[in-house]
Protein backbone atom coordinates (compact mmCIF):
# COMPACT_ATOMS: atom_id res chain seq x y z
CA UNK A 1 0.00 0.00 0.00
CA UNK A 2 0.87 3.66 -0.02
CA UNK A 3 3.22 5.18 2.53
CA UNK A 4 3.06 8.93 3.00
CA UNK A 5 5.78 10.56 5.07
CA UNK A 6 5.56 14.15 6.20
CA UNK A 7 8.26 16.45 7.55
CA UNK A 8 8.79 18.25 9.78
CA UNK A 9 6.45 17.17 12.54
CA UNK A 10 6.70 20.60 14.16
CA UNK A 11 7.64 23.93 12.66
CA UNK A 12 7.94 27.37 14.23
CA UNK A 13 8.41 30.49 12.12
CA UNK A 14 8.36 34.20 12.75
CA UNK A 15 5.40 36.10 11.43
CA UNK A 16 6.08 37.17 7.87
CA UNK A 17 8.53 34.36 7.16
CA UNK A 18 7.81 31.44 4.87
CA UNK A 19 6.95 27.90 5.92
CA UNK A 20 7.60 24.77 3.90
CA UNK A 21 6.22 21.32 4.63
CA UNK A 22 7.29 18.30 2.61
CA UNK A 23 5.68 14.96 1.93
CA UNK A 24 6.88 11.88 0.11
CA UNK A 25 4.80 9.02 -1.18
CA UNK A 26 5.60 5.55 -2.42
CA UNK A 27 2.78 4.52 -4.76
CA UNK A 28 3.39 5.71 -8.31
CA UNK A 29 -0.33 5.27 -8.97
CA UNK A 30 -1.16 8.15 -6.63
CA UNK A 31 -2.44 11.02 -8.73
CA UNK A 32 -4.14 13.48 -6.40
CA UNK A 33 -2.46 15.34 -3.56
CA UNK A 34 -4.57 17.56 -1.27
CA UNK A 35 -3.39 19.56 1.71
CA UNK A 36 -5.56 20.10 4.76
CA UNK A 37 -5.39 22.55 7.64
CA UNK A 38 -6.77 21.42 10.97
CA UNK A 39 -7.32 23.81 13.83
CA UNK A 40 -7.66 22.54 17.36
CA UNK A 41 -10.95 20.75 17.94
CA UNK A 42 -12.08 21.08 14.34
CA UNK A 43 -12.17 18.94 11.24
CA UNK A 44 -9.56 19.24 8.47
CA UNK A 45 -10.21 21.93 5.90
CA UNK A 46 -8.98 21.60 2.32
CA UNK A 47 -6.65 24.49 1.55
CA UNK A 48 -5.10 23.50 -1.75
CA UNK A 49 -4.69 20.44 -3.94
CA UNK A 50 -2.72 19.36 -6.97
CA UNK A 51 -3.07 16.61 -9.52
CA UNK A 52 -0.32 14.58 -11.09
CA UNK A 53 -0.52 16.34 -14.44
CA UNK A 54 0.50 19.66 -12.85
CA UNK A 55 3.83 20.61 -11.29
CA UNK A 56 2.82 23.64 -9.30
CA UNK A 57 -0.31 25.40 -8.12
CA UNK A 58 -0.68 28.67 -6.27
CA UNK A 59 -3.49 30.33 -4.37
CA UNK A 60 -2.54 33.68 -2.87
CA UNK A 61 -0.03 32.94 -0.08
CA UNK A 62 -0.24 29.20 -0.47
CA UNK A 63 1.47 27.10 -3.13
CA UNK A 64 2.01 23.42 -3.69
CA UNK A 65 4.70 21.81 -5.84
CA UNK A 66 4.80 18.24 -7.07
CA UNK A 67 7.75 16.21 -8.30
CA UNK A 68 6.34 13.00 -9.71
CA UNK A 69 9.70 11.53 -10.54
CA UNK A 70 10.98 11.90 -7.01
CA UNK A 71 7.53 11.20 -5.54
CA UNK A 72 7.42 14.21 -3.31
CA UNK A 73 5.25 17.28 -2.95
CA UNK A 74 5.51 20.35 -0.78
CA UNK A 75 3.32 23.04 0.74
CA UNK A 76 4.67 26.57 0.75
CA UNK A 77 3.11 29.33 2.86
CA UNK A 78 4.53 32.79 2.35
CA UNK A 79 4.13 35.86 4.55
CA UNK A 80 2.91 33.72 7.42
CA UNK A 81 0.40 35.13 9.87
CA UNK A 82 -0.52 33.96 13.38
CA UNK A 83 -3.81 32.61 12.06
CA UNK A 84 -1.83 30.18 9.91
CA UNK A 85 -0.93 28.34 13.13
CA UNK A 86 -2.53 24.89 12.90
CA UNK A 87 -1.76 21.28 12.06
CA UNK A 88 -1.31 20.65 8.35
CA UNK A 89 -1.82 17.25 6.74
CA UNK A 90 -0.81 16.15 3.29
CA UNK A 91 -2.53 13.27 1.56
CA UNK A 92 -1.95 11.10 -1.47
CA UNK A 93 -4.77 9.46 -3.35
CA UNK A 94 -4.69 6.73 -5.94
CA UNK A 95 -6.94 3.82 -5.31
CA UNK A 96 -7.13 4.83 -1.68
CA UNK A 97 -6.63 7.94 0.40
CA UNK A 98 -3.57 8.15 2.65
CA UNK A 99 -2.83 10.91 5.14
CA UNK A 100 0.57 12.13 6.19
CA UNK A 101 1.43 12.27 9.87
CA UNK A 102 0.84 16.00 10.21
CA UNK A 103 2.92 19.11 10.85
CA UNK A 104 2.16 21.41 13.73
CA UNK A 105 2.91 24.93 12.50
CA UNK A 106 3.32 27.78 14.96
CA UNK A 107 3.64 31.32 13.67
CA UNK A 108 5.22 33.55 16.28
CA UNK A 109 3.94 37.13 16.28
CA UNK B 1 -20.10 24.91 -1.34
CA UNK B 2 -19.04 21.40 -0.24
CA UNK B 3 -20.10 21.73 3.37
CA UNK B 4 -20.24 18.70 5.63
CA UNK B 5 -21.87 18.84 9.02
CA UNK B 6 -21.71 16.50 11.99
CA UNK B 7 -24.01 16.13 14.93
CA UNK B 8 -23.47 16.19 17.80
CA UNK B 9 -20.23 18.13 18.12
CA UNK B 10 -19.65 16.78 21.60
CA UNK B 11 -21.18 13.89 23.50
CA UNK B 12 -20.56 12.39 26.89
CA UNK B 13 -22.05 9.01 27.70
CA UNK B 14 -21.82 6.26 30.26
CA UNK B 15 -20.08 2.95 29.61
CA UNK B 16 -22.35 0.42 27.99
CA UNK B 17 -24.55 2.89 26.20
CA UNK B 18 -24.69 3.48 22.45
CA UNK B 19 -24.04 6.76 20.71
CA UNK B 20 -25.08 7.78 17.22
CA UNK B 21 -23.17 10.38 15.22
CA UNK B 22 -24.65 11.89 12.08
CA UNK B 23 -22.73 13.13 9.06
CA UNK B 24 -24.52 15.19 6.43
CA UNK B 25 -23.42 16.71 3.15
CA UNK B 26 -25.34 19.98 3.08
CA UNK B 27 -25.01 21.21 -0.47
CA UNK B 28 -23.99 18.21 -2.51
CA UNK B 29 -24.79 14.55 -2.89
CA UNK B 30 -22.21 12.11 -1.63
CA UNK B 31 -22.11 8.58 -2.91
CA UNK B 32 -19.20 7.87 -0.61
CA UNK B 33 -18.56 8.97 2.95
CA UNK B 34 -15.66 8.08 5.17
CA UNK B 35 -15.38 7.75 8.93
CA UNK B 36 -12.13 8.56 10.69
CA UNK B 37 -10.93 8.44 14.23
CA UNK B 38 -8.29 10.78 15.55
CA UNK B 39 -6.31 10.52 18.78
CA UNK B 40 -4.66 13.59 20.30
CA UNK B 41 -1.72 14.88 18.29
CA UNK B 42 -2.05 12.10 15.75
CA UNK B 43 -3.16 11.80 12.17
CA UNK B 44 -6.56 10.63 11.07
CA UNK B 45 -7.14 6.90 11.06
CA UNK B 46 -9.61 5.61 8.50
CA UNK B 47 -12.21 3.37 10.11
CA UNK B 48 -14.56 2.62 7.26
CA UNK B 49 -15.81 3.63 3.86
CA UNK B 50 -19.54 4.06 3.48
CA UNK B 51 -21.30 3.85 0.15
CA UNK B 52 -24.92 4.86 -0.24
CA UNK B 53 -27.22 1.88 -0.31
CA UNK B 54 -24.60 -0.74 0.42
CA UNK B 55 -22.70 -2.15 3.35
CA UNK B 56 -19.75 -0.23 4.68
CA UNK B 57 -16.22 -1.45 4.12
CA UNK B 58 -14.24 -1.56 7.35
CA UNK B 59 -10.52 -1.19 7.72
CA UNK B 60 -8.54 -3.99 9.28
CA UNK B 61 -8.86 -4.03 13.04
CA UNK B 62 -12.10 -2.05 13.16
CA UNK B 63 -14.97 -4.03 14.65
CA UNK B 64 -17.99 -3.71 12.39
CA UNK B 65 -20.36 -4.88 15.12
CA UNK B 66 -19.11 -2.18 17.44
CA UNK B 67 -19.03 0.67 14.95
CA UNK B 68 -22.25 0.41 12.98
CA UNK B 69 -22.40 2.51 9.84
CA UNK B 70 -25.50 3.30 7.85
CA UNK B 71 -25.48 5.34 4.64
CA UNK B 72 -29.19 5.50 3.94
CA UNK B 73 -29.22 8.47 1.58
CA UNK B 74 -26.92 10.51 -0.61
CA UNK B 75 -26.62 13.16 2.08
CA UNK B 76 -26.56 11.23 5.35
CA UNK B 77 -24.34 8.64 6.95
CA UNK B 78 -24.48 7.60 10.59
CA UNK B 79 -21.91 6.00 12.87
CA UNK B 80 -23.22 4.24 15.95
CA UNK B 81 -20.75 3.33 18.65
CA UNK B 82 -22.40 0.41 20.42
CA UNK B 83 -21.77 -0.54 24.04
CA UNK B 84 -19.27 2.26 24.36
CA UNK B 85 -16.27 1.94 26.68
CA UNK B 86 -13.78 4.55 27.86
CA UNK B 87 -11.26 3.41 25.25
CA UNK B 88 -13.75 4.46 22.57
CA UNK B 89 -13.33 8.05 23.68
CA UNK B 90 -11.91 9.91 20.71
CA UNK B 91 -12.49 12.53 18.04
CA UNK B 92 -14.58 11.08 15.22
CA UNK B 93 -14.56 12.82 11.86
CA UNK B 94 -16.50 12.07 8.71
CA UNK B 95 -15.81 13.14 5.17
CA UNK B 96 -17.74 13.03 1.93
CA UNK B 97 -16.89 12.84 -1.73
CA UNK B 98 -18.96 14.76 -4.24
CA UNK B 99 -21.14 12.54 -6.36
CA UNK B 100 -19.92 14.26 -9.51
CA UNK B 101 -16.91 12.05 -9.43
CA UNK B 102 -14.09 14.02 -7.94
CA UNK B 103 -11.84 12.43 -5.37
CA UNK B 104 -11.73 15.46 -3.11
CA UNK B 105 -12.81 14.68 0.42
CA UNK B 106 -14.61 17.36 2.39
CA UNK B 107 -14.49 16.89 6.12
CA UNK B 108 -17.01 17.51 8.82
CA UNK B 109 -16.15 19.46 11.98
CA UNK B 110 -15.77 16.31 14.06
CA UNK B 111 -17.49 14.85 17.10
CA UNK B 112 -15.75 14.60 20.46
CA UNK B 113 -16.91 11.44 22.23
CA UNK B 114 -16.17 10.96 25.90
CA UNK B 115 -17.18 7.70 27.54
CA UNK B 116 -17.23 7.75 31.31
Q: Can you walk through the features of this model?
A:
The complex is a heterodimer of chains A (109) and B (116). Chain A contains no helices and eleven strands. By secondary structure, chain A is mainly beta. Chain B is an all-beta fold. Helices cover 0% and strands 55% of the residues of chain B. Chain B is globular and about 40 Å long. Chains A and B meet through strand 4 and strand 5 of A and strand 10 of B.
Oligomer: heterodimer
Shape of chain A: globular
**Biggest sheet statistics of chain A:** 6 strands, mixed
Strand content of chain A: over 45%
Contiguous runs where pLDDT drops below 50 for at least 5 residues of chain B: none
Index terms:
heterodimer, A: 109 residues, mainly beta, 6-stranded mixed beta sheet, 5-stranded antiparallel beta sheet, 0% helix, B: 116 residues, 7-stranded mixed beta sheet, 4-stranded antiparallel beta sheet
Short note summarizing the structure:
With 109 residues, chain A is an all-beta fold. Chain A has strands spanning 5-7, 10-14, 19-24, 32-38, 45-51, 56-59, 62-67, 72-77, 86-93, 97-99, 103-108. In chain A, strand 4 (32-38) and strand 5 (45-51) form a beta hairpin.
List the helices and strands and how they pair.
The complex is a heterodimer of chains A (about 110) and B (about 120).
Chain A: E1 5-7, E2 10-14, E3 19-24, E4 32-38, E5 45-51, E6 56-59, E7 62-67, E8 72-77, E9 86-93, E10 97-99, E11 103-108
Parallel strand pairs in A: 2-11
Antiparallel strand pairs in A: 1-3, 3-8, 4-5, 4-9, 6-7, 7-8, 9-10, 9-11
Chain B: E1 4-7, E2 10-13, E3 19-25, E4 30-38, E5 44-51, E6 57-58, E7 67-73, E8 76-81, E9 90-98, E10 105-107, E11 111-115
Parallel strand pairs in B: 2-11
Antiparallel strand pairs in B: 1-3, 3-8, 4-5, 4-9, 5-6, 7-8, 9-10, 9-11
